[in-house]
């Protein structure tokens, strides 16, 4: 079974530039997540999609970050304009949706390491 | 959201059993306890999940006392490849489906 794919793996940009990350989840996974992981910290959820609808974007800095999931499959996360503090690893994860109280097992991609100079 | 407390770091030697305890005093009735493992330059990976008593799989065991205010991840006979960050997660986001990560425990295994 293919895992979660992300690209690019690394990106270096200057502050105020824009950048986009791409994620292809595991086939059949209805739920897709984007996380930001700053060095030395745990992943922080930015946005969660259920199919192509947003169910949680409470921690997404909407003045500069945007995300979309077209047709309920692939997703892109964009930062415009980037700031120095956006330097982090951006992780995409996906999971089945089964409802109920039991959290779904999340499958993570390798991440994109962003450096903003 | 239940807040978790776990040691920042732990050291062990190959072949030893490692127990990482997580405290979650305000766990809700419907919360599950989930553990993830993260190697450098990789995304987290699911290890084990439980609600009460004991859960065991091919990788680890999870012990949960009756009051559920803490839990212990047990890794039998660790090897160098078990060096990683281990996250204890309890509670979900406002959508009720995504887990909240803390800082985790960095486990270092030496030969």
Distinct helical segment count of chain B: 0
> Regions of chain B with pLDDT < 50 over 5+ consecutive residues?
none
List the uncertain runs of chain A: none
Shape descriptor of chain A reads: globular
**How much of the sequence of chain A is in beta strands?**
over 45%
Helix share, percent of chain A: under 10%
| Oligomerization state | heterodimer
Number of contiguous helices of chain A: 0
Tell me the number of strands of chain A: 11
- Overall pLDDT of chain A: 93
Helix amount of chain B: under 10%
How large, in whole angstroms, is the Cα Rg of chain B?
13 Å
Global structural class of chain B: mainly beta
Most strands sheet of chain A: 7 strands, mixed
Percent in strands of chain B: over 45%
Helix and strand topology:
The complex is a heterodimer of chains A (117) and B (111).
Chain A: E1 5-7, E2 10-13, E3 19-24, E4 31-37, E5 44-50, E6 53-56, E7 65-68, E8 75-79, E9 88-95, E10 107-108, E11 112-116
Parallel strand pairs in A: 2-11
Antiparallel strand pairs in A: 1-3, 3-8, 4-5, 4-9, 5-6, 7-8, 9-10, 9-11
Chain B: E1 9-13, E2 18-23, E3 33-38, E4 45-50, E5 53-56, E6 61-64, E7 70-75, E8 84-90, E9 105-110
Parallel strand pairs in B: 1-9
Antiparallel strand pairs in B: 2-7, 3-4, 3-8, 5-6, 6-7, 8-9
């Amino acid at each position: 079974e293919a895992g979660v794919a992300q690209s690019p793996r690394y990106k270096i940009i200057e502050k105020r530039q824009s950048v986009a990350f791409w994620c292809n989840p595991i086939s059949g996974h209805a739920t897709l997540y984007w996380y930001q992981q700053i060095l030395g910290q745990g992943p922080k959820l930015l946005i969660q999609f259920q199919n192509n609808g947003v169910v949680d974007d409470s921690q997404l800095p909407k003045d500069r970050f945007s995300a979309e999931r077209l047709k309920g499959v692939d997703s892109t996360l964009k930062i415009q304009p980037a700031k120095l503090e956006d330097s982090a690893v951006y992780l995409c994860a996906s999971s089945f949706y089964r409802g109920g109280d039991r959290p779904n097992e999340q499958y993570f991609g390798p991440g994109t390491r962003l450096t903003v100079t | 959201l239940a807040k978790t407390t776990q040691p920042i770091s732990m050291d062990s030697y190959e072949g030893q059993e490692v127990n990482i305890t997580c405290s979650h005093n305000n766990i809700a009735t419907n919360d599950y306890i989930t553990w993830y493992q993260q190697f450098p330059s990789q995304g987290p990976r699911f290890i084990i999940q439980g609600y009460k008593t004991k859960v065991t799989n091919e990788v680890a065991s999870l012990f949960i006392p009756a009051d559920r205010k803490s839990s212990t991840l047990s890794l039998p006979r660790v090897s160098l490849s078990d060096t990683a960050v281990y996250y204890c997660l309890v509670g979900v986001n406002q959508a009720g489906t995504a887990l909240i990560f803390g800082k985790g425990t960095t486990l270092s295994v030496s030969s």
